[in-house]
Amino acid sequence: MRKSIRYLLLTFGILVFALNSFAQKHAQSDADKAFNNGAYYKAIVLYKKALGYISNQHIKGAKKIRANIMFQIAECYRLTGDFKHDIEEYGKAIKGKCDDTLAAKQYIEEAEEEMAKHKDTVIHYQSKVLMDPR
Fewer CB within 10 Å: N-end or C-end of the chain? Predict the structure, then answer.
């Protein structure tokens, strides 16, 4: 009786692990499709879902997989012009040692430049409004 319960629990554990692994791959695959179709906001949600699946697993190379997914999330933010989140996610990807750390560092620099330009534009606009309030 005890052996059959152990066997049942072991089988159940393996099944849950396998289904979770399949769900992670499916979520990441769906996110990649959304990204390639230009649906960046949808891809962000799906990539974050895939990250959740990876967090619950103890698989070899999970840190690298997470870092590469964070890089993809950062790409989504970059392509939508959300520079603040883009910088955060690229930083996480670099910290996790993603496959393309050089590109991530370059994109962070570009995002910081864009944010500086935006800040200068806002300051210029505000000074014009203050000079001529109409």
Answer: C
C-alpha to C-alpha distance for 66 and 48, rounded to whole angstroms: 10
Which DSSP string corresponds to 41-70?
HHHHHHHHHHHHHHHT---TTHHHHHHHHH
| Contact yes or no for 28/57 (Cβ under 8 A) | no
DSSP character for 100? T
Average pLDDT for residues 63-91, to the nearest whole number?
A: 90
Q: What is the pLDDT of residues 21-73, one digit of tens each?
A: 444 556 788 899 999 999 999 999 999 998 887 765 566 778 888 899 999 99
Domains of the chain by range and CATH? Answer: 2-131 (1.25.40.10)
Q: Contact 104/125 with Cβ under 8 angstroms? A: no
